[in-house]
Amino acid sequence: MKAVLKRTLLLFSIVQLISVKSLAQEKQNQFIIKIGEVEVISLSDGIVPTDAFKLLKEEHSGLIDSLLTKSGVENPVNIQVNAFLVLLDNKKILIDAGAGDFLNIDSAGKLVESLKMAGYEPKDITDILLTHVHADHSGGLAIDNESVFPNAIIHLHELEYNYYIDNKNLNGMKEMERIFFLKEQAILALYKNRIKTFKGSKKIFPEIKTVPLLGHTPGHTAYLLKSNHNKILFWGDMVHIKEIQFVLPNLADSYDIDIEKGKNQRLKIYKNLARKKLTIAGAHIKFPGIGKLNKSKNEYEWIPIE
User: Entry's SUPFAM superfamilies (predicted)?
Assistant: First the structure.
């Protein structure tokens, strides 16, 4: 619970094959690729300025400062927020929904704009797969306390849903932490009759399978898309600041509800994906957020899609 409180205060205070050669294209806030027979569009929701020293523990400030300097990245770090549109048969499926107006900052909440630039309207979305309910992933489900996606079914892990509908989790929270929790809870309530939960690993669609990566939140889940032997994993919040976390994967992440479990999930998934050379879609990696991991000793290198 302490990690939840830190995460909400921090947000408020700082306000394997893939065929892409002829189909990948970047147009401002969108990037289009093809995974087998399925088209995937990366959509930018904007950026959220974040204090790296608070996010990744201040006792490591010397290492963090050195890595930021080496990478040419200034603190606060402008963390990218990406969502992904999957065009699957007659389905138009969003992976996460960005921040909307939840964080009340001008630099984020641009998903609908990006979606329209790609040629789609919110009413076109049939399904939204939430990796988790943190504000920068679920906030875009609502604008001015009204639902944005009138026809979408919301899919999320049962543990995630149960956590956010249980008011016992408000016990011990300070005012600002309560505000975040209740706002996230209210967003889910707007879609109450259109929420489908799942347990463990299962196929939501024939081409899309859930991959629970619990720890960051109670029900944090990645989604694996497979088409014609081509795969991509939409991994949610397995990294926030790649310039630091891929080099120092043992660092604790203050956004994790379960610090140890979250860290262990990262260590495990980094190693596994680097070994398999699996294509990754990251919510917080520089747009378009798609690439692969390469392992060198105890460090990892992000290889962006070209």
Answer: Metallo-hydrolase/oxidoreductase (SSF56281)
